[in-house]
Amino acid sequence: MDDNVVPQNIIKLLYDKSQDKKQQGCQQLRSLVCSCAASGKELLIKQIIETLKIKFTSSSQLYLKRQGMFAIQTVAEILVKEYPQLAERCVKDLTQPILECLNDKEDKARQYAVECLLQLTKIMKTMILLNFNEIFEYQLGRSAEQDNQIVQAMLLLDAQLKTQVQIAVQEKLYEPGKPCYFNLNSFMTQLQSKLKTRVTYVRQFLLGWIKVLNQCHNNDLYIYFPMILEGIFMMLGESNKEVRNGADVQANEFMKQVEIKVNMDQKVNEQIIEILLKICQMKGNQNNYAKLNSLLWIFEYLRVFQQELEEEQKGKLGLQHSPSNVLKQEEYMRSNTSPISKNQIQSYFGGFESPLRKTILNSLSQILGPILILLSHEEEEIRKAAQKTNELLLKVMDRVKNQSVEFMNIVPTIKEMLTDKKSNTAESALIWMKHLLEIYSESLFPTIEDILTKLIDKLADSESAIVQNIMDVLANISMHNQYFEIVIDKILMMLHKNQDQQEKKGDQIFKKLCSLLNPQQVYFTITAKLLEIYSDNDVLFISNTVQALTNLLISEKELQSLRNILRNLKHEKDEKQRQHNQEIFETLYRTFCYNSMSVITLCLLSEEYELAYNIIISFSEVEVNQYILLEIAQLINVLETPVFIFLRLQLLEYDSHPFLMKCLFGLMMLLPQGPAFNTLRHRLKNVSNAQIQSLQQDKKMETEEFLDIQKLLTQFRDIRLQCINQESKQKDLN
Question: Record's GO cellular component, any one (predicted)?
Fold first, then answer.
């Protein structure tokens, strides 16, 4: 940096202890800054500020520090007044030298620094919030000041900053187009880390800011609860009465937002529930009041959910527009300062798939355990709150038990609690088991669920020899209709979680299932579950699983019956059976579309040669990579297996199967010259030129077509586009 960026005559005037000369120096500094700003010399202005820092605020002499602060105020004043956009870019430069003085050893230097920051805040107003996080950090560092003058100045500064934050938030609310200098997200992240402190005066300082933020955001901090709630609850065990009461008031204020905001964001709900349960399980009597408040919060979530279920029932009875519901909607709209979509409103007031519903049902097993344990707590008030919450949870379960809601995930918790040595906990667990048995009358239900979970866990870790035995047990469980889909679900989840083992274990698991159960039902369920659960998030997993199913379909004797159904797709004479076979094909086709070679194999096996040909031709629409070429080569090898003898013989009936010939020639054209290319070329070389020429004629001698080829082809293209888009997004994330 050029030492002469600020002329020496200005430096000398600012050094002078004479008030007149200092004012003269400030006037010349103002002119210098104006000149630079008018010329757009932002870097030069920052160098001027840096020079003032080096020459003055970093000096060991108090009067020079103070003069430097005055000079920086002068620069800030002219920039904010005449060049506000430039001032915005210089906020950090203007405030940083003053902030560093807050750490000075001399009380007077710190006092002057606080007073200077106060003046800068008044000059820059909301603009100073561009460096708010750093100012807040320094404020926090000086919150233990003992000097009375500094404390008073700090209070004034804190009040002024809170005022500017309130103004900034209101401007954002009522003037959306105006830039907002206060970044709530950034500040909440900073606040989250600070709330871990156990220092009393720091906690008091933080509570003051949380209160202001909640007020100026119109009680709309719900989405930030996961960041600050645990810290506030921990203050409930604070020895200082003022802090403890402040935290209690704030926790109660926040709880009022639950009913209004609870259906805005499922993820936020789940994070809050997780925090509440964590507090419920903390040890030590100092956390008892926090535990009690956590139970009250959980009860509030359940109460609102029960209320939602009642509104849902009214809706079914045609009472959805009852006065109470209308008033509730109005309050919801009035209290919410965030943008609200129509879907959010419908989700909230429709009730069927609301975020709260998903949260409670997804968290049921996690909620139940701590509540059952707290039923035996040594403190009576906590026991009563736990009992009240437990009773409400049972009522909620009774209300949703006829809505296809599964409660099996709570069985391990209940079984664990049954052996608890504390009578209240064990007794309540027995009540829960009684309720479950009323819903699921099968006596084996609790035992099977426990065994099933352990078997699936074992399946993930076991070697090949043990897998066979595990699958025997799983298949026996699956023979009970109510457990069949559960077993398939859990197997797919295990394979999805352990995709490195999918290729090795997938074939073995699916083969064993097909050998012990109805292969058609196994395939239908697996393909349906793949679409239902994984189509939106993991198309690669679907593709790999479909490849495993295809390998079994064309090679294993257990799948002979399903192969026969597909082979007879176009030849079945009975109309009802033909429609059934067509339904089987289309069901498999939807999922097989996630693997190009598998869907072509399915078409060839079913003699749907025209559809297969159109799919092959569609490869011209995408970039064919090495992976696809490898799959095509594998398909050529598959066509040489005994299962496709019928297809190879049909090559002799080229007039009857022109699209078969086109399929094979299409595959050969896609391949580079190599072993697979040569295999197919040798197979086709006996086709004469006259036969090839006949393919160019408009002969349509294929068996009558019952499928909607264009519809199925469109379905394939749509799924392929979905796969490409999802893979592209995954690459971007990586």
Answer: PAS complex
